[in-house]
């Protein structure tokens, strides 16, 4: 489910859960999750380019998730501010 959120735009068949992604993107999507996991096997035939692509995609996915978290946190603070404003100034006026 968590990986689907990252790869949902690459979904080909929702019934069979078939995605069209490169192995590097799939590995990076899983590596970027905040869930506990450990790498049990990574093909030793991956080139240095593939490993650097995994690292850069992982970093990009993490940055996107942090950016969305910041947006929603900011919206939460704005909502709390509006509620406090309503409570302090509009309800006693």
Strand line-up across the major sheet: 1-2
**How far apart are the first and last residues' alpha carbons, in Å?**
48 Å
Radius of gyration, taken over Cα atoms and rounded to an integer in Å: 20 Å
Q: How many individual helices?
A: 3
- What fraction of residues sit in β-strands? 5-15%
Structural class, from helix and strand content?
Answer: mainly alpha
* DSSP, total strands: 2
| String of helices and strands | HEEHH
Largest sheet: 2 strands, antiparallel
Low-confidence stretches: none
Helix content: 55-70%
Shape descriptor reads: elongated
Mean pLDDT: 86
Describe the structure.
- The chain is mainly α and 93 residues long.
- It has a domain of 65 residues.
- Helices cover 62% and strands 5% of the residues.
- The chain has three helices and two strands; from the N terminus they run αββαα.
- Strands 1-2 form a two-stranded antiparallel sheet.
Core attributes:
93 residues; mainly alpha; elongated; 3 helices
How would the blueprint of this fold be written?
Blueprint: H1 2-7, E1 11-13, E2 18-19, H2 23-31, H3 48-90
Antiparallel strand pairs: 1-2
In short:
The chain is mainly alpha-helical and 93 residues long.
């Amino acid at each position: 489910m968590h990986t689907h959120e990252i790869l949902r735009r690459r979904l080909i068949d929702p019934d069979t859960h078939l995605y069209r992604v490169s192995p590097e993107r799939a590995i990076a999507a899983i590596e970027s999750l905040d869930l506990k996991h450990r790498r049990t096997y990574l093909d030793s035939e991956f080139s240095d380019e593939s490993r650097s692509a995994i690292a850069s995609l992982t970093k990009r996915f993490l940055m996107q998730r942090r950016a969305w978290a910041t947006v929603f946190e900011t919206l939460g603070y704005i909502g709390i501010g509006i509620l406090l404003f309503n409570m302090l100034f509009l309800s006693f006026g």
